């Protein structure tokens, strides 16, 4: 396959091309998501859906097990060789962090970096301008847009002039806030021939409103009468672009798959009705889904579910640009994920209400190059300047969601849909709290990740839960796995993916449960069993039950059925290690997402080497 310009880094040896993005830190993420999209085919029925799907999916790359190598960047400078312009001939120096063990594999090698249509070949082999071989200081020659860099410095000055507080940018390692760094615009004297001009990532979080650009829950949006439908009041548009009906219809993509949306949804719901064996672990049946959800669901005259009257209400639309890139847990889209959160409803009339059965539709955003990603990020940030819920705001938001929600946007993914996975988080049809995950299957994914028998092409199938072992493995496999993978777990960014099987034992689970009450993390054993306590913490935090439960002291959901946010999504959060009582850790998830969005939207593509991704996927 011809490499596309969405790739930022390529090792000189054989490494799959990927695009890097995610939480801000002084390290490099590498990753892409899907191959370069092909032109969409006409939306016409297919004669043999199964045969056509199998052929289409054979070339898909949606396997979450695939994580590339990536270097960790310490600094990058451009040295202009002529007058400042949009394409000034320059020498670049890239320094990798010698303290990061993962950088040893790149010592003395070459690295290719793409900036728009320009490929920069960085050398550490002592040739073509590289002074010393094997010192992790890479050199390259090319051009650089100093006009844009100077404009960014003016943006920083303008932001400082309008702020009552000194400007800072936040630095994260994984999900932990490690420090804030003062932000000062570069002095104009730096922009001279022969001067070393630093290229560094700066995100101005104060220029992003989370309520308008990140986690959108305003009633004027989630109750938009043109785009949503309320099953409690029967108000709105049953086919609106933010309805459960529209989104599942697009995901089923009947013109391509031959699968009717009603069948697609009903077969998905059936997966709670009987026990499911996933990677040998059994997810028990939750038969209450029938009397609580399926039976009351309004039906068509044929007896099929009436999707136009789906008992799911929109709770939130979420921008997860920060999940883009080399997140080892998912084959995400090139611009992270876009998400819709729905809550099931019960009752009629004045007694109708949302219940703790959350459905999260998580779409990859397939953008093919840095400039497209940057434009997409700018569109999200522009929402911060519009009146929340106004006609202009809602129209702009729809233009964004249609970039991942409508059919045929990802021709090489299952059903040609951009969906990565569908997750559920519920207590309504059974106990304890349970999280499940469903994916469309393609022939590149290990079928053991899915429920047996199956999986079925073109359908949502029960799938293992990301980064989370089955709880039964705690006494036997948990500690040996963590102890055997400490470097990958504590790396910044983490480079591990919880495998299906470890030491000949099934490991990754088919569901995640969060019993209550809880006081200390479930994914914990004494220091005698797991000596590296940071590895224990990171592993636990990146599990579904750790993130949604005891590692953060969280109450099961991050966005609940009424739109309420968890403490983790509500601002700064500090507390001592919940297993050992120390150290104290600081989190500010929303600040991380604000910082990342502003940086991506406003800075040179060459700052992307400093972006890292956590193994967290929740």
Automatic annotation (TrEMBL):
Domain of life: Bacteria
Protein name as it appears in the record: Lipoprotein
